[in-house]
Design the sequence.
């Protein structure tokens, strides 16, 4: 990794800034850091393809360094007057991107916490009776959604089936909603997956909402666009904006699809008034006073108290590159996907038709025919396909072979 070459310069800078009392001890630090770096998967390698984050935007890294150095807390305006304004500005840009005309939002360290915030708001909105409250999740919802429901005390978490296309099965959803109504329970929350983690699939939002309308149920509709948020920077942005204007909240993980340094997520709500929970926030009266402008008291809107300058990373990236850069970047990712597809041999079977940047496929052994869908194979054939794909995977991991 390149950083190893520059580590001594970084340490000199550290000494220059802080004037460390025993600079010679930095050599020991250098050794520790070098071995840590060498034992960590190299995110800068073009072969590092497994996860949903990549090497960070350099301007974001610089912003991260500056905010760590300044080390101010983005909980109130008086502590962080500028970082606070940067965050509010970024929230306003994102609100217009998702079609929330009177919404609000706050940055979070990750999609998991943002999903938790969305379920918390759903519970608060309806003053839900937790014994009667139900949420439905699918196999393709991120596991943080079910986990958040448990944290919020929801006892009934029902699984809806998914189709072979990797989205919610509408027939099964209709049956579940009907049963929930019959049993006099309350569906308080539904999370539409907008870009599933492994397949990159998008739930059919309009059809899902029709089912809720048919049964006159009004769950809080959350869009988990932690990964799929890139579509808002794509040619299809207007279509997705129309869809999200129907939701109650949405999350984007910029550390995933825009390569902001970890962590940088925004949680947005359609109705401005719901974000500040008076009962919880006002207990912090050592921080929050009545003479503050609440627009800038960001911890009032968050489950956190102390907060880092998550938004400043994105703000500086946007100031440096401009929003067009990100549109071009997402376009390039789609082109890369097509290029990658061309390079694949013709012995592959796609798990689902690609809706986003994910490309999921199985290699089919040479002795077998490439069929239409995976369910066309027998169990013995599937075992053989599994063995081949695991062997290829292991070869990639162990030998760096591609
Ligand atoms: C769809 C989706 N939602 C939520 C999350 C959780 O986000 P984070 O890892 O930022 O907590 C992920 C992470 O991969 C995800 O893919």
Sequence:
């Amino acid at each position: 990794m390149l950083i190893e070459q520059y580590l001594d310069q970084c340490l000199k800078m550290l000494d220059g800034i802080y004037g460390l009392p025993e600079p010679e001890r930095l050599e020991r630090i250098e050794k520790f850091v070098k071995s840590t770096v060498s034992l960590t998967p190299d995110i800068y390698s073009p072969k590092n393809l497994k996860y949903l984050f990549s090497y960070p935007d350099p301007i974001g890294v610089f912003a991260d360094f500056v905010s760590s150095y300044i080390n101010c807390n983005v909980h109130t305006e008086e502590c962080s007057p500028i970082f606070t304004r940067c965050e509010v500005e970024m929230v306003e840009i994102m609100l217009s991107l998702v079609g929330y005309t009177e919404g609000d939002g706050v940055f979070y360290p990750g999609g998991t916490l943002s999903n938790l915030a969305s379920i918390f708001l759903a519970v608060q909105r309806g003053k839900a009776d937790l014994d009667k409250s139900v949420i439905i999740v699918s196999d393709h919802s991120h596991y943080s959604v079910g986990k958040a429901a448990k944290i919020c005390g929801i006892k009934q978490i029902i699984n809806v089936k998914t189709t072979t296309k990797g989205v919610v099965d509408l027939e099964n959803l209709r049956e579940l909603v009907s049963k929930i109504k019959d049993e006099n329970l309350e569906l308080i929350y539904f999370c539409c997956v907008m870009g599933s983690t492994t397949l990159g699939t998008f739930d059919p939002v309009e059809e899902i909402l029709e089912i809720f309308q048919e049964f006159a149920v009004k769950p809080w509709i959350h869009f988990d666009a932690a990964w799929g948020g890139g579509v808002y920077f794509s040619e299809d942005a207007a279509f997705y904006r129309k869809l999200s204007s129907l939701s109650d909240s949405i999350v984007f993980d910029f550390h995933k699809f825009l390569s902001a340094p970890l962590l940088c997520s925004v949680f947005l709500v359609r109705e401005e008034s719901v974000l500040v929970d008076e009962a919880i926030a006002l207990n912090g009266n050592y921080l929050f006073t009545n003479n503050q402008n609440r627009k800038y008291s960001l911890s009032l809107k968050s489950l956190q108290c102390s907060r880092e300058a998550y938004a400043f990373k994105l703000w500086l990236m946007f100031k440096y590159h401009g929003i067009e850069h990100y549109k071009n970047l997402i376009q390039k990712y789609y082109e890369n996907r097509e290029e990658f597809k061309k390079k694949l041999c013709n012995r592959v079977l796609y798990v689902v038709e690609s809706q986003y940047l994910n490309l999921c496929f199985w290699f089919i052994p040479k002795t077998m025919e490439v069929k239409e869908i995976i369910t066309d194979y027998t169990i013995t054939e599937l075992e053989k396909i599994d063995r081949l794909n695991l062997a290829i995977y292991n070869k990639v991991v162990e030998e760096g072979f591609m």
Remarks:
- Strands lie at 104-108, 133-138, 156-160, 186-193, 220-225, 249-253, 265-269, 348-350, 361-363.
- Residues 3-40 form one domain.
- The pocket of pyridoxal-5'-phosphate is lined by residues 52, 110-112, 142, 144, 197, 224, 226-227, 253, 265 (CB under 6 Å).
- The chain has three domains: 3-40, 70-321, 323-399.
